TrEMBL record:
UniProt source species: Sandaracinobacter neustonicus
Taxonomic lineage from the root: Bacteria, Pseudomonadati, Pseudomonadota, Alphaproteobacteria, Sphingomonadales
Residue stretches making up the DUF2062 domain: 37-182
Residues passing through the membrane, by range: 61-86, 92-115, 151-177
Keyword tags: Membrane, Transmembrane, Transmembrane helix
Pfam families recorded: DUF2062
InterPro entries in alphabetical order: DUF2062
Protein name: DUF2062 domain-containing protein
Amino acid sequence: MAAARENCIAPNPRGVVPVPGWLKLPKREELEANRYLRPFARHLSSPLVWRFNRRGVARGTALGLFAGFAVPMAQTPFAAVFAVAARANLPVAAAATFITNPLTMPFIWVMAFIVGKQAIGMQNDTLFRLAPGAGRLEQAIGWTVNLAGPTYVGLLIFAVVGAAAGWMSVHLGWRLWVGQRWNRRKRIRAARDGQPAGLGAGRT
């Protein structure tokens, strides 16, 4: 039934629908102009990574969220590579990486440190102890490892959970959106025929 509804909205068998006007996604020209993506320019021309359908958007959302959390820098190029490899919607994957931005990153990093610390069973905020006579370099390295280690573990957990949640949310939201459009079309068709919606189903 869900597939039939998608086909009624978009008359092709793959369920491709027009991008909603309220959804602002990176344009093809913007992604192709990205210097990090130029080596993959020939792959960006594939129509498979530009189709707006349920599976492509769900994959793009999941991969973009994973890259946004798990990749420390250049998340958009990594998300684009993931999208090309998985035939996901590339603009959605690129947009999803902005889950981490200058406004959200401090909060995400603090929460990632707390989650990662609990995940690895870290005691007293220390992964390993330095010798009493350790120099400044050893102390700096130790401080970096003690802080970055649990934080990245937490980010990896966020990446996996976020990707799964994004994938499921798109599938659920897509079905609800398609159902709303289907019902709206039924009401419009019933109003055009001059009968209340739902009465026509009882006819033989």
